[in-house]
Structure prediction request, 612 residues.
Amino acid sequence: MKQQQAGLYVVVAPGDQWVPTMSAIIAKVFLGHPCRGHRRPGMAESAPSFLVHEICAGSAAGKADEIRASVEFGLREGRIVILLAGSRLALPPELGVAADHTLFVMAPDRICLTEVLEAVDPAGRRSGLRGLNLRAITPASLRLAYRPQTTARDYLRRLKPLTLRSKTKANRFDSLHGIDKAKGWATALKLDLKLWRQGKIGWDDLPRGLLLAGPPGTGKTSFAGAIADHIGIAFVPTSYATWQRSGAGHLGEVLKAMNVVFTEARVLAPSVLFIDELDTVGTRGGRGVRDDWWRAIINALLEQMDGVASNEGVIMVAASNNPELIDPAILRSGRLEDRIDLQPPDANALTRIYAGHLKGRLDADVDLPRIARMSAGATGADVARICKTANRRARHEARFVTTDDLMVAIGVDGGIADPQQQRRVAVHEAGHAIVAMAYSVLCVGDLSIVSRGNTAGHAEVSASRSGILTPAVLDAMLAALLGGRAAEEVAFGNISAGSGGGDSSDLARATQLAATAELSLGMRSDGLVWYPQVSGNRLSQLFGQRPDIERAVRLRLDAAYTNARELIAARKPLLELLAERLLTRKVLSAREVMDLANMAEAPAIGPLACAS
Prediction:
């Protein structure tokens, strides 16, 4: 750096704890001062002069104006200005963007530690690093482990306990549930990285990147960080919003911030570079007058992903709630070539998530599997909120968390207050199950009358042979979808609007399925023809233009509804039994539903094996 031209140089240390030590090194190597004691920011007498500032987390907030003025003065005077930071995020944003060069300094690796051991004890062996957590080493731990005339063995014996405190972070991987496919990907990556480090495979043999797609709250960001923890490598998070905030928001500053974070990931390699909310960047050709801006952003991102410098050692992981909005070039082979869709956890995963959040705080009488079934459709983030609320309620009364605490937090008591409305919901959901059980091609899951969002209840029904949609499966699914409405008519002599409404309602899903059969699946009774799938307003427009298709769809729905009504009428005792049990327990598992069906001795019930 002594030979460098005047300008602004940013040096990012492995952490705040390294800043004073590195400042002393700079003072010794570049400024000619001894590496002892603390030196206030100042200028060397020789030309070109140096100006050094130490910036740690939180320290820049109150001194930002002072640091900025000092940097501006040094640059005006033609000096070399060095900003030494414990993290890139600790820098005032405009100074990070204005830097002529940014240098990321890595924490000590095994080669470095071997050299330290040789300096401590030239006669010492180079072995004994097993059990040493390199990521937790700090200048203080290196100094605290040292004694005059110590041996390498004794030095390591004192150093290892000082690095144990950070190893518990790896437990985060084991605490994530309901994402088995994603965890399998990370475990395979860990094995591949080990082989790569041993020189047994090349970097081209490893996956280039991974897209985590799914609705909010399904653990995409948590899992990305857990990958790095599980493997034991650096984690570098970023997003378009971070690049945008790095300066005044001009295109050049955004692109420079993107380059900085990719450079950081390369310096810290092996590392996980995580890009959150990737769909924010969008796709080229779809932004109208702003398309030039986004085209430049996406092209620069593609260049970074392809490696304007070598990306060896950098695993790219991105997250998106709307993957369909991402430019296809970003997702092609060689970039984010793998994709895993994360969905809300099932009942088993929810049970484990609850157990993790409530460990040591749960009353012995709580039936967590039942609580999990009440939470059907909840995400991991939802469960964290529910447990926090229940914990707070129990804490204020100095006791363990009870079933009542959890039910209140879930919102069971905040649903439908009218007993007649509750009974109608219970009959409705029981109707879905009864029709599904009458068909051997369908499986029945959990039933619930716990309201969630815009739905007052829920019934899980699925095809028993996934992947193949035959006319028999189609007719059974249509009847099951309309079974709730049929049950209301059988039980009360009238129906409610509970089957209709939005595009996720029973009637909407049945109409869409019947229309797909007519348009796209080759199941028309009036000749063979294929149409692209349509939904929503486009489907209603098609019905207006093609009354023959609307009539064919209506005939399918009418036939399915007639079948559903006849099946439920023949099983009215079972309908009453399921509805009463739902009103009492709020949720019923698939096994409980089948046991009640056997108890009622309902005819033509599907095989028990279909209980999911």
